[in-house]
Design goal:
- With 286 residues, the chain is an all-beta fold.
- The protein folds into two domains: 1-73 and 210-286, no CATH class; 75-170, Lipocalin, CATH 2.40.128.630.
- Helices cover 0% and strands 51% of the residues.
- It has strands at residues 16-18, 25-30, 41-46, 51-56, 63-69, 79-82, 88-93, 99-104, 108-113, 124-130, 139-144, 148-153, 158-164, 170-176, 181-186, 190-196, 202-209, 215-220, 226-231, 235-240, 246-251, 257-262, 267-272, 277-281.
- The strands form six sheets. A four-stranded antiparallel beta sheet has the order 1-24-23-22, with no helix packed on it.
Length: 286
Amino acid sequence: MAVPLPQPPPPPDPQFVLRGTQSAVHALHFCEEAQDQRHPLLFSGQGRDLTLRLWDLAEGRNAVVDSVQLQSMGFCRSSVLAGGQSRWMLAVPGKDSEVQILEMPSGTSVCTLQPEAGAKLGLPMCLRLWQADCSPHLLLLAGYEDGSVALWDVSERKVCSRVACHEEPIMGLDFDSQKARGVSGSAGKALAVWSLDGQQALQVRGTHQLTNPGISDVTIRADRKILATAGWDHQVRVFHWRTMKPLAVLAFHSATIHCVAFATNGLLAAGSGDQRISVWSIYSRT
């Protein structure tokens, strides 16, 4: 008589849920400066109410402690790169295909990145600022409407490399600077994994098919062991970063998940069109 194989444990429930928004949640960011505290701070960006909110997870798990009114909205999320306790860099979409680089909190414009004449990239859809440990140059990875990823040298204001990754607009990307390896998702049914060599050339390394089409966001955890995707099918999917093996499907929301973010203490937050933010504790960092 065959012995039945043990069944995997069911996916966990959220550790807690934030319900204080009045609109779909399109962007999440854990405050790096507070992540060494017991309870990290979580920023959330909503859609049509043009509001950036600051959550303090120590106060009842649902308190909005500060907010900022935004002046515009679009499909492309901004990217933050901390340069110190008093200043940081911010990449935001500009008009048409442009990307603006700002120094914060002053809001001073550093430069505007404009593709070459004739380059039919479409709009920037997702941005990722980063800086190599051995280089003073500020770099930007941008995913575009035409399905390509471009690497910008911000100081030179030029594209170092560009590679076609998807047939649909790229909705989310993330980059592992230690492994020089990135991942992106689109409206299609595949994740693309790509690399950056020592000559700053991008190259697609492979694609990984998904159960359902539509990825809104992709994020790699800081320890570079797992990544999470935000799905149009209302689900968060977790993968092993080195092998891209599927690890878990987190089901809670009743609408498209627009964004996912990891805290350095291992928490995973997901924001959805159902106006809720779920916060999960999975695969703790050990």
